């Protein structure tokens, strides 16, 4: 059991380091541009999460959780950049973008603030 937890921790740290370094060679836009766009959107994303409009799904992407669809352009742009980042990391690591996204979703859930919506692996939404 301890080996599994250690393995998950090591994998999580590895994916985070890859995520933060963003591989520019396989991305259409430079890593600096992607990072800048993502950082610029973060306050808006946090506000939408705080309102309970969006949450983090189990694939590492933002999703609407209620009836309100406020900020669709923000959600769409963020998800597009995340998809590019996941694809770049997957190519570098010889894995799938889905696997990278799923691992990132676990990290996002661990760092989520109380009250934020998260989707578990079975597809159920719950507040942290």
Produce a short descriptive summary.
The chain is an alpha+beta fold and 128 residues long. The protein is 60% helix and 9% strand. The chain has helices spanning 2-21, 31-50, 72-93, 97-111, and strands at residues 54-56, 62-64, 117-119, 125-127.
Structure description:
It contains 4 helices and 4 strands. With 128 residues, it is an alpha+beta fold. It has one domain (27-127). A hairpin with a 5-residue loop joins strand 3 and strand 4 (125-127). 21% of the residues are buried.
Largest sheet geometry: 4 strands, mixed
Shape: globular
| Count of alpha and pi helical runs | 4
| Rg on CA atoms, Å | 15 Å
What is the helix fraction of residues, given as a range?
55-70%
Task: Give helix and strand order, one letter per element, not per position.
Answer: HHEEHHEE
On the 0-100 scale, what is the average pLDDT? Answer: 86
| SS-based class | alpha+beta
Separation of termini? 24 Å
Number of domains: 1
Question: Which stretches are poorly predicted, pLDDT < 50 over at least 5 residues?
Answer: none
Strand content: 5-15%
Which strand order do you get reading across the main beta sheet?
2-1-3-4
Number of DSSP strand runs: 4
């Amino acid at each position: 059991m301890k080996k599994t937890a250690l393995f998950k921790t090591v994998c999580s740290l590895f994916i985070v380091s890859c995520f933060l370094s963003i591989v520019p060679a396989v991305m259409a836009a430079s890593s600096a541009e992607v990072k800048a766009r993502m950082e610029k959107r973060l306050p808006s994303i946090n506000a939408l999460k705080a309102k309970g409009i969006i949450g983090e799904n189990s694939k590492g992407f933002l999703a609407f959780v209620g009836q309100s669809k406020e900020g669709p352009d923000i959600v769409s742009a963020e998800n597009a950049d995340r998809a590019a980042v996941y694809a770049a990391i997957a190519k570098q690591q010889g894995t799938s973008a889905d696997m990278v996204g799923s691992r990132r979703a676990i990290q996002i859930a661990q760092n989520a603030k109380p009250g934020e919506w998260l989707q578990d692996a079975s597809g159920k939404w719950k507040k942290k």
